[in-house]
Design brief:
mainly alpha, 5-stranded parallel sheet, 3-stranded antiparallel sheet, about 60% helix, elongated
């Protein structure tokens, strides 16, 4: 007994004699979900999602078991009482469907046969196959299973089947016209053209049917109506095939006779997009690799430089457009033909197999169907033999992986393959790789200008910039936007820019007809989520978490390991899977980031993870940042005391970055600063004051060279608000301590002292000797800035005594520098010089560049006072080189001030003026108010001296 499953219309089960009832909406949805993945395992989670969407009840497991039991009864009754149709296969269930049992499979097989017949211009076969396919279509697939049929996976499958039906109908009318059945075709074509006012194929066939039936005026009307609809709604003109049909109508030509398939080489390339823009470097690279330009072309068209070229990139980046564009220009290099196939590597209904594609290619090359071997490997050998003496280009579009295309490739000789894939296909032997990135701004602008008009897009530059930013350089998105603008001539660009606001319906706006950014992304994601490979399913989970938790920032294997709660090695493998599939960008080694549009799509995949899972993942990531910043600050400052580390499960087995010196630590923090700001906000939203203040305090190392930006001040203030809201006394103590440092670096001395006094009281309450010693040392530094040498010395000595009591030798070295500063202020340069030399000896080679540069600068100034010109400038030059290497703008200005004073002191007026002017320019660029005043005073002193010299002469 043969069971027939039908979903081309309402869902039905037929036992060969009569329909078998499938009662209950949940059981029907369950059967549909299993049919859509026939002969493949569907996980329990996927089935629960199909049944209940995002609102899975607590009793879902028990309910699912009940529904499966009921479905098994239905299947067993329809299958003669056997109970082998639905099997339990970890991690879910598998529905066995044999060949010829599923109407969608039979329908697609007929459509495929019609496609093959159409390509070899076997019109009787086209007519026969389409006549067998069309009765299977009973209506919109799964029409009775809304809202399940409207969810992502079934909706994609329904769309593909509907598109296959329309394509088959177009082929059937091509056959009717070729067979001379013009009159019979008019009525059904009129209906189809009315139902699909933008479908060019139906209108073309209707024009020809009317014309060849002697109804030229109606044929003209069909063309004009189609052109008006295309221009008004899509902003585009009819394609080449319609224009050729129109030319036939204008010329009054008789119906053409079909040419035998063997009369000319196959040329199967799709029509080229009229608005293809940019990609000059990639086009040139592909042409050169395939022997279309350069050395390969000079050697003659018979020599292709590589066997295959893989054009890879994320969905919607323009891979197919580029491949078709290049292939059209390589026609002379491959005179024996161009074979094209969409491999459907990411279609929900499954990829096309090498077995069927080999049959099609061999047929296209003249091999009779009866001569085709049954074995796939034998067919591959036959294809290689057929290509051995031919110069044929195979364009293999939308490949899933290397195994998908390997049997289809020529084995050498003059033929070549041009492959597109969302995967890198790094494991495809003998291939060259041409990855595509989003378009640069200049090409984005040019593409929109071609689609919507240069004057139009140039009239609102701000809105245009917002639109381009919202499209993220993705050609698919830009095509949708450009076509929408062209079809809405009265729309200001600002209106569309508003609709494209991220996370406010942007992906809904980036959809028009068959062009849909969300659907394009879904093909990649769903294929990974439903993969048989555990690593790919794990990568799909990582994709979701990145989108919901961290879409705006890059991650590394170390930070991703914390987010995903896996080892660093496993995180690296997961990220590489995503990068290979172009679901994340990999702009530099070990950094991975979601494209803006992919990030928004990923953020919407929240139905597959619980809120608790997402919060826990975010907590792990925030804890990682707190620990990593602590490590960076320790490397950058060699601080005498670090905050106590976080406690808890989130801190276990973290992989943290390692820093060779302070420069590396500071540069790492600068790169991560935007992420740290968002981490601080996230910690506050989670109510984790303990993480928030550690994040802000952890920016101390970065601030040692970048205090002048004001970023640290803002983070400290935000963290203080969070600590106060949660009555976090330890957090407030550390924040007052570091806020004081921020004020001190900016010479806001009174504010600095105020925060130091509060911090001193809080740490005294805690009995923390080291903290008190550090704070008193900071007070000494502030009094030095206030030129109060007495208080500076008192606080320095108190700090030194507490460091000794606590047994902290590193703190003693810091205090020696403070005491040297006091000697310098008291006019005791010999004592100051001796202390500075000792400090420099202690810290040279420790990797603490900021501390060393500060000591060198002060030592150089003391040498100036002592009259040792050469050594003074040598020391100051070393300090300046350290500041420049670390991109420390504030420290660079400090060095320049002391260097200018030294030149002035030694009567080197031109050098002094040049140094003051350089320092003034730097200070103004970075708003260093104190340094601006000092530079102006220095230049004024030089001007006064010059005036005095002139008067004296």
């Amino acid at each position: 007994m043969v069971v027939k499953f039908g979903l081309l219309g309402s869902l039905v089960v037929h036992d060969g004699t009569e329909l078998r009832p499938v009662t209950g909406p949940k059981v029907r949805v369950l059967l549909a979900a299993l049919l859509l993945q026939a002969n493949r395992t569907v996980s329990r989670d996927a089935l629960k999602e199909a049944l209940w969407g995002s609102s899975v009840p607590a009793s879902a497991d028990a309910a699912l078991a009940n529904h499966l039991t009921r479905l098994r009864r239905v299947l067993a009754a329809a299958d003669g009482g056997t109970d082998e149709r639905l099997r339990t296969v970890a991690p879910g269930y598998q529905l066995t469907v044999h060949e010829g049992e599923f109407d969608a499979d039979v329908f697609e097989a007929r459509v495929l046969a019609a496609r093959q017949a159409h390509r070899r211009e076997d019109w009787e076969a086209v007519r026969r196959e389409t006549e067998l396919a069309m009765p299977l279509w009973r209506g919109t697939p799964l029409a009775d299973l809304a809202p399940y049929s409207e969810t992502e996976t079934p909706a994609l499958r329904i769309h593909q089947l509907a598109e296959a039906r329309l394509q088959a109908l177009e082929w059937s009318f091509d056959a009717e016209l070729r067979l001379g059945r013009h009159h019979e075709a008019v009525a059904p074509l009129t209906t189809l053209a009315g139902e699909h006012p933008l479908r060019e194929g139906f209108h073309r066939s209707l024009m020809l049917a009317l014309h060849r039936s002697g109804r030229q005026a109606e044929a003209f009307s069909v063309f004009q109506r189609l052109r008006r609809n295309l221009v008004d709604q899509l902003g585009t003109e009819p394609g080449a095939a319609v224009r050729e049909a129109y030319a036939e109508v204008l010329a009054g030509e008789a119906a053409p006779r079909p040419r035998p398939a063997s009369a000319r080489p196959p040329f199967q390339l799709p029509c080229e997009a009229d608005a293809f823009t940019g990609r000059e470097a990639e086009v040139a690279a592909v042409r050169a690799l395939l022997g279309g330009t350069g050395a390969a072309a000079d050697a003659g068209p018979a020599t292709a430089r590589v066997r295959a070229v893989v054009v890879s990139g994320m969905g919607g980046v323009g891979k197919t457009a580029l491949a078709v564009h290049v292939a059209h220009r390589l026609r002379e290099a491959f005179p024996d033909g161009a074979l094209y196939a969409d491999l459907r590597g990411y279609c929900v209904g499954g990829a096309r197999t090498a077995h069927e594609l080999l049959a099609r290619f061999l047929s296209d090359l003249g091999v009779h169907q009866d001569a085709l071997p049954e074995d796939t490997d034998d067919r591959a050998l036959l294809l290689r033999s057929a290509l051995a003496e031919r110069r044929v280009l195979l364009v293999l579009d939308n490949a899933r992986n290397a195994a998908h295309v390997a049997p289809l490739l020529p084995a050498g000789g003059p033929s070549a393959a041009l492959i597109t894939s969302r995967q890198l296909l790094a494991d495809l032997p003998g291939s060259a790789k041409v990855p595509l990135s989003p378009l640069p701004e200049s090409d984005q602008h040019a593409l929109l200008a071609r689609l919507a008009g240069a004057e139009r897009v140039g009239s609102e530059p701000e809105a245009l910039a917002d639109i381009m930013a919202a499209c993220g350089g993705l050609p698919l998105a830009l095509h949708i936007v450009g076509s929408r603008l062209a079809s809405r001539p009265s729309w200001p660009l600002a209106l569309l820019a508003k609709r494209l606001t991220p996370h406010r319906g942007r992906l809904d706006t980036l959809a028009m007809g068959d062009f849909d950014v969300r659907r394009t992304f879904a093909m990649s994601y769903v294929a990974m989520r439903d993969s048989d490979q555990p690593l790919e399913r794990e990568a799909a989970r990582a994709f979701r978490l990145l989108g919901r938790v961290w879409s705006a920032h890059a991650v590394t294997p170390q930070s991703a390991a914390a987010l995903l709660d896996v080892t660093e090695a496993r995180a690296a493998a997961v990220l590489d899977v995503l990068a290979d599939a172009h679901l994340v960008l990999n702009p530099e080694p070990d950094r991975y980031q979601l494209h803006d549009l992919l990030g928004e799509y990923a953020a919407q995949r929240d139905e597959e993870d619980t809120e608790e899972e997402r919060s826990t993942a975010l907590l792990r990531l925030l804890s990682w940042y707190a620990a990593a910043l602590a490590a960076a600050t320790l490397a950058a400052t060699r601080e005498t005391q670090s905050p106590p580390p976080l406690d808890g499960e989130a801190l276990k087995n973290l992989s943290l970055p390692e820093f060779a010196d302070d420069d590396e630590a500071i540069r790492w923090t600068a790169k991560e600063l935007p992420a740290v700001r968002d981490a601080l906000t996230g910690a506050g939203e989670l109510g984790r004051s303990d993480i928030a203040w550690r994040l802000a305090v952890g920016l101390f190392g970065h601030a040692s060279t970048h205090w002048w930006t004001g970023e640290w001040d803002a983070c400290l203030e935000q963290a203080m608000d969070i600590a106060r809201a949660h009555d976090d006394r330890l957090g407030q103590a550390w924040l007052h301590r570091r806020t004081a440092v921020a004020h001190g670096m900016a010479f806001r001395n009174e504010a600095c002292l105020e925060h130091l006094r509060i911090a001193l009281d809080l740490f005294t309450e805690r009995g923390d000797l080291t903290a008190r010693a550090s704070i008193l040392g900071n007070m000494s530094a502030v009094y030095l800035q206030l030129e109060d040498s007495e208080q500076a010395l008192v606080h320095a000595e108190r700090s030194r005594d507490l460091y000794r009591e606590a047994g902290n030798t590193r703190g003693e070295a810091l205090l020696l520098s403070r005491i040297a500063d006091v000697h310098k202020m008291l006019g005791e340069p010999d004592l100051a010089a001796a202390d500075y030399r000792r400090v420099i000896e202690l810290i040279r080679g420790t990797g603490h560049g900021v501390f060393l540069a500060t000591a060198l600068t002060n030592y150089g100034d003391v040498l100036r006072v002592l009259g040792d010109r050469d050594e003074a400038f040598e020391v100051l030059a070393e300090a300046l080189s350290i500041r420049l290497r670390m991109s420390d703008q504030g420290g660079t200005a400090d060095c320049l001030v002391f260097t200018a004073r030294a030149h002035h002191h030694f009567g080197e007026w031109d050098a002094a003026r040049e140094t003051w002017e350089s320092c003034l320019e730097l200070a103004r660029r970075h708003n260093l108010a104190k340094r601006i005043d000092e530079c102006l005073e220095g230049l004024k002193a030089l001007a006064s001296r010059a005036l005095e010299e002139g008067t004296r002469l």
